[in-house]
Amino acid sequence: MKTKIFKMENKNDDNLGVVAALLKSNEVVGFPTETVYGLGANALDASAVNKIFKAKGRPSDNPLIVHVSDLEMLNTLVEDISEKAEILMSKFWPGPLTLIFKSKGIVAENVTAGLKTLAIRFPDHEIARAIIEQAGMPIAAPSANNSGKPSPTCGEHVFEDLDGKISAIVYSDESKHGLESTILDMTKEPPILLRPGSITIEDIENVIGGIESDPNLNRSLSSDVKPLAPGMKYKHYSPKADVRIIQGESDKVVKVISDMIDTYKDSRVGVMCCDETKSFYQAEKVISLGSRNDLNQVASNLFNALRSFDHENVSVVLCEGYTTQGTGQAIMNRLNKAAGYEIINV
Ligand code: TXA
Ligand code: MG
Questions:
Q1: What is the best residue among 92, 98, 175, 232 to mutate for testing ligand 1's pocket, by most ligand atoms within 8 Å of CB?
Q2: Which SS3 state, helix, strand or coil, does residue 110 take?
Q3: In this structure, are residues 140 and 109 in contact, taking their beta carbons and an 8 Å threshold?
Q4: How far is the C-alpha of 297 from the C-alpha of 295, rounded, in Å?
Q5: For the segment 290-299, what is each residue's pLDDT rounded down to a tens digit?
Q6: Is the per-residue pLDDT at 304 higher than 90?
Q7: CB-based contacts of 265: which residues, under 8 Å, 6+ apart?
Q8: Displacement of CA 71 from its chain's centroid (Å)
Q9: What is the pLDDT at residue 225?
């Protein structure tokens, strides 16, 4: 299949109608959002949704998030919207927060992988919203990467993974947040955090009070444990190289990583660090994610950095760890998955 590329700067682009028409005819399309790029299809049609699973190589037991362009669309899809959910929606939507509700069973069955609940997101990206609006239907969309690879934060990443496998890709700006949305299950009381993101636990608790976290969030899962978000059991975000996290006081981390570079001197070594430490490392490929004092910047550069190590053919990537407070929780969640939870505390 020839994948068409559309470059768009804003929602007034003439090709937006062409993209909406592709979705209406049950084709799959890569498109920008403020978190990561998504791979969208008509959520009401099982054959369209099936094309998403096929293109990504995604296991069929991993449900998809459905994207809406207004609250009216939300109300057609789910029920039992609690007062707490209303508060979160008025505070954080449109934005990088996915909420799980009881499904009305309107979407195609393969969207929810048989679950009775449905994850909904109202993206804060004008092109994403305009595409959904013009298509006039809810759009199921996982991140637009091959299963197992880091999520895409620009059109080129989508092209790298899915060229020839999908009908079109809309290229626009780099994803602002660079990490997938925070996921909160509103069918439970208190609500349960299933995936941390740039809307933090603190942000949520400030408006609705205490929530709980899936106890399996930050640990490696043996095959008998079922995480509450099925996708969290799969290895994610991994470059081809082995990833190791080194966590501790900055001086010690720099010393340990430098020693490790020497130990691995017969292999090509990558280092993922911050602006404050970059000059201390001499390795094949050293990438700074930005200043350690700006975790939003670190988050937005993380997936691009993980991907770029693949092009350098390094066999190991040594990563500095981050705080688990605020946005750091989401950063460390993704890093931990990339590293298979191998963390060296120094
Ligand atoms: O920021 C995002 O959320 C991006 C953009 C494209 O919107 N999408 C995204 O989708 O990250 P995906 O498919 O890569 O991750 C969705 C996660 C998976 O771990 C899946 O198992 C979980 O959400 N999920 C979806 N529906 C669920 C449900 N009903 N109950 C529990 N977990 C669910
Ligand atoms: Mg994904």
A1: 98
A2: helix
A3: no
A4: 5
A5: 999 999 999 9
A6: yes
A7: none
A8: 23
A9: 67
Residues 54-69 have pLDDT tens digits of 999 999 999 999 999 9
**Pair of tokens at residue 223:** 């095959």
Nearest to 144 by CA among 52, 243, 67: 52
Q: Which two tokens stand for residue 324?
A: 């688990």
For the chain, the residue count is 346
Q: Which of 31, 58, 61, 65 to mutate to test the pocket of ligand 1 (most atoms within 8 A of CB)?
A: 65
> Would you state the pLDDT for residue 222?
59
**For the CA atoms of 193, 49, 28, 126, what is the dihedral angle to 10 degrees?**
-40
CA of 142 from ligand 2 middle (Å) equals 5
Q: What's the CA-to-centroid distance between 256 and ligand 2, angstroms?
A: 32
- Residue 11: CB atoms within 10 Å: 16
Positive/negative CA dihedral, 295, 142, 70, 194: negative
Which single residue is written with the structure tokens 């705080």?
323
Tokens of 76: 């057609």
For ligand 1, atom 7, which residue shows the shortest CA distance? 38
User: Ligand 1 center to residue 63 CA distance, Å?
Assistant: 7
| Closest ligand, as measured to the CA of 102 | 1
* Cα 96 to middle of ligand 1, angstroms: 12
- How far is ligand 1, taken at its centre, from the CA of residue 206, in Å? 24
Residue of the CA atom closest to atom 15 of ligand 1: 142
- Is the pLDDT score of 223 beyond 60? no
Q: Are 303 and 271 in contact (CB under 8 A)?
A: no
